């Protein structure tokens, strides 16, 4: 027998490449409800209240969460009981379909209690949006099972290879940085498909059940977010059905034509996802800033300044100014975050109404907004650390942990690629706005009525 893709462990013939699932036909109808909500009618305000009520519990668990490298089984069961994994899940599967802006607000509150927990929850529960947007009804129904419980990290680097198999696709490789993996039911990620007939690289998006991958013990030694539950997952010749892999369009490892609007009747399942992903990290960063401000405020009410008069810091004009400025910067970050969420919905709804495509430039516009929100949060954090005093940064203090956690955010692609995303947005926006510039257009430019070479 011929091994699949030369794999010596396979003992069946190499089949033809299975068809990659495409969007439903034009007569598709929204799915009927298959599962009931555990608590019918919960609103965003209900989840915000529950998140705030968890703050003391999450703060008491911070150190143990770092040591464990993920939040506790107790916290997981609270999230499960209180519906936090269902925030963006379709109502057809017992979810609550909150708006993206509402989801972000809840994550800010969870991260304010524990940044690592906020990150793990956001990137485990939030990807129900991506899954419901891009996979077909049978795949969704199978993944949601009988109880609607779904948690999935999402890795965008196509470091897993997918080859044809008689039963679908065979996956081999390792995805790193899978935030949400410890309690995951599935994993989402980009895969490398067999190249096209002309040798062009092809990529896909796969959903993999927990039984098909191993969660590795390789997380927890970074500078911050040590408890974010972001280990690698490994697949060895894991076979998934044909519908569990969809081909991505072009070189964009994240983008396959959404099918979720036709299935669920909600425009939010019709959008691109890069900007949404960047918003998840900004929500955690904003929550870290809020937590740092909480510590700073407590110090104002308890400590004295180094200079006369030695009253409380709260009565000193310098500290009053610093606190007020940091508060406004974090309010600005939160406002940007809300704008990202609402703009995401506006773009989805515009496309569904046929008024314009939710295109690459739109998605990059959202990523750039997230980057600017991150700048506000970064400036606030810098101010709070600079003026908070060295004693606040003693090892094991909350302030020290928040500073380390925020440093991890600053090194994350959601923050470090700010300039690259701005450049990509400009290229996409100008390309969409008019015809491509010719070589002669680039080589010569009119300045003050005179023709000069570009760059002169």
A few lines on this structure:
This protein has helices spanning 44-53, 55-60, 62-68, 73-82, 100-113, 115-125, 128-134, 137-144, 260-264, 274-300, 317-352, 360-388, 398-410, 413-416, 418-433, 439-443, and strands spanning 154-165, 168-175, 186-193, 202-209, 214-215, 233-240, 245-247, 444-447, 450-453. It has 456 residues and is an alpha+beta fold. The chain is globular and about 80 Å long.
Structural features, described:
The protein is of the alpha+beta class and 456 residues long. The strands form 2 sheets. It has a 7-stranded mixed beta sheet, with no helix packed on it. The chain has a two-stranded antiparallel ribbon with strand order 8-9. The longest helix is centred in the last third of the chain and has 36 residues, at 317-352. Helix 10 (274-300) packs antiparallel against helix 11 (317-352), helix 10 (274-300) packs antiparallel against helix 13 (398-410) and helix 11 (317-352) packs antiparallel against helix 12 (360-388). The protein has helices at residues 44-53, 55-60, 62-68, 73-82, 100-113, 115-125, 128-134, 137-144, 260-264, 274-300, 317-352, 360-388, 398-410, 413-416, 418-433, 439-443; strands spanning 154-165, 168-175, 186-193, 202-209, 214-215, 233-240, 245-247, 444-447, 450-453. The model is unreliable at 1-17, 19-29 and 435-456 (pLDDT under 50).
